[in-house]
């Protein structure tokens, strides 16, 4: 066992004295673009259920918010991992192991098999979205990540332009005045809409499946925003292929869950999809070009296809095509 893992096993046994002397298999979990590190601990003899140790840093301001977000979502009845132990001094959290089967693992399955998994996922999202910003106290809002406002949307748009359009495509966009006007209209319109709690990174690799139920992870970015942003993250996820008819089915299902008007939901959904996909493309370019995580580059073509589809389905967004096609 590598020294780092041996040290973590010693620390874990100190946290759980009843596991002293129990043989354990330690397995690193390598996934995603996070600066956090995850390890799966499987104990001999089933003395304790398998657990996942999350070791985080203070490099990102949302990392220490994972534990309070877990408690908040659990109180709402959202399926999230149980916290077995938390050591704030050592930046370690021991969590229930939810298994290896995430929603992304089913991306090649028939829609008949995938649809109930996505519907289960949307049911968890609806629990989060049921909390409206107006019902939150100033103290509760201050404890979360900053709300999606016009400045946040503008930051995402600039991130897309800086890292993807200029950095990855090497394209000068200063003269594309119509596209810039559409970006301004987009962020201004989204910022005026009433907000609710959102997951913020609601994509297929952040949903684990157990016995037909969906369990959420990576929600430390919880904040006030638009439900349609989460829906766009899931239904225009560049990691998987979801057809237009499948998206329609799932949007209809979500609308029925909340007794929402489908045409209005679809309109804001497309606006949020453009916003989310620009953020994702900026992230893929930044992670692959500047942070050495080159595997994220493989998702850029799918992200471009999805953003193109959104701009074609929402005519008011068509000028954005000049930024990247």
Please characterize this protein's 3D structure.
This protein has 325 residues and is of the alpha+beta class. It has two domains: 3-96, 2-Layer Sandwich (Phosphorylase Kinase, domain 1); 103-324, Aminoglycoside 3'-phosphotransferase, Chain: A, domain 2. Helix content is 47%, strand content 13%. The chain has eleven helices and nine strands. The protein has a five-stranded antiparallel beta sheet with strand order 1-2-3-5-4, covered by helices on one side. A hairpin with a 7-residue loop joins strand 2 (37-43) and strand 3. Helix 9 (262-290) runs antiparallel to helix 10. The longest helix is centred in the last third of the chain and has 29 residues, at 262-290. The chain starts with a helix and ends with a helix. The relative contact order is 0.12.
Task: Give a nutshell description of this structure.
By secondary structure, the protein is of the alpha+beta class. The protein has helices at 3-15, 66-75, 111-129, 138-142, 150-168, 177-191, 227-235, 244-258, 262-290, 300-313, 321-324; strands at residues 24-29, 37-43, 51-55, 83-87, 92-96, 196-198, 207-210, 213-216, 223-225.
